[in-house]
Design a protein that fits this description.
This protein has about 210 residues and is an alpha/beta fold. The chain has one domain: Rossmann fold. The protein contains seven helices and nine strands, in the order H-H-E-H-E-H-E-E-H-E-H-E-E-H-E-E. The strands form two sheets. Strands 3-2-1-4-5-9-8 form a seven-stranded mixed sheet, with helices on both faces. It has a two-stranded antiparallel sheet with strand order 6-7. The radius of gyration is 16 Å and the shape is globular. The chain starts with a helix and ends with a strand. Bound molecules: S-adenosylmethionine. The site of S-adenosylmethionine (SAM) has 20 residues, from helix 1 and strand 2.
Length: about 210
């Protein structure tokens, strides 16, 4: 079992109990406005316990699929978002149909992958999205780690978790290379943590 997978299994219950500290209402409303779809299909990468993200979209009549490699998180998701179709898998290893999703989210999850894996994920996400589909994700920056570029460990809720990021400028180049164009990026302090919140659009039929 991967170290981070085990750590999220251990964290799952405490994380879910404290999830309300990180209020997603503003960022989800902003993403919703970019989606311009009254109903659609969402893929949530690192879906955790299925709320608030999956729950928010299910309540708006979207079909939601979630991927997570923490069994404990998915057990909680069965309670909070039973309508979500879940894949117990490492997001880097799953094969999915191209051009299927109107939206893909990676809320507080993608930053746990090493940068080369993030780059590979951008290419897959771009393919999995319909042209014009939107990708929302949380990006760590120096506002979180104190360094321009970072690959290492930080404490979160008593666990020493792996995080990785480059600079926002290099991130933009990585996204462009994957045919993902940034629609919006803003630093938000939520629950005492500042991250860059990015919304990007799949620009081509890859
Ligand atoms: C901080 S939690 C966020 C959960 C949820 N997105 C939320 O906003 O509450 C990060 C989640 O990403 C999952 N995760 C991290 N890396 C993953 C990977 N490579 N494949 C699948 N899930 C992953 C973890 O198991 C964990 O449930």
């Amino acid at each position: 079992m991967i170290k981070l997978q085990r750590e999220y299994d251990e964290l799952a219950e405490m994380y879910e109990k404290n999830r309300g500290i990180f209020d997603m209402s503003g960022i989800l409303s902003s993403y919703w406005n970019f989606l311009e779809c009254p109903s659609g299909k969402l893929l949530d990468l690192g879906c955790g316990a299925g709320e608030p993200v999956a729950r928010w979209f299910i309540d708006r009549n979207w079909l939601v699929e979630g991927i997570d490699y923490s069994r404990k998180m998915l057990e909680l998701a069965a309670k909070y978002a039973p309508e979500m179709k879940v894949y117990y898998a490492d997001m880097r290893e799953i094969g999915l149909t191209d051009h299927l999703y109107d939206g893909i989210t990676a809320v507080y999850s993608l930053f746990h992958l090493p940068i080369p894996d993030q780059i590979k994920m951008f290419a897959k996400i771009s393919r999995w999205l319909k042209p014009g589909g939107k990708f929302l994700f949380t990006y760590a920056t120096k506002e979180y780690t104190g360094l321009e570029e970072f690959s290492g460990f930080k404490d979160f809720m008593g666990q020493n978790l792996f995080y990785s990021h480059t600079t926002p400028l290099k991130l933009e180049k990585q996204l462009t290379a994957a045919n993902l164009e940034i629609c919006s990026q803003k630093y938000l302090e939520i629950g005492g943590e500042t991250f860059l919140w990015v919304i990007a659009e799949s620009t081509k039929l890859n």
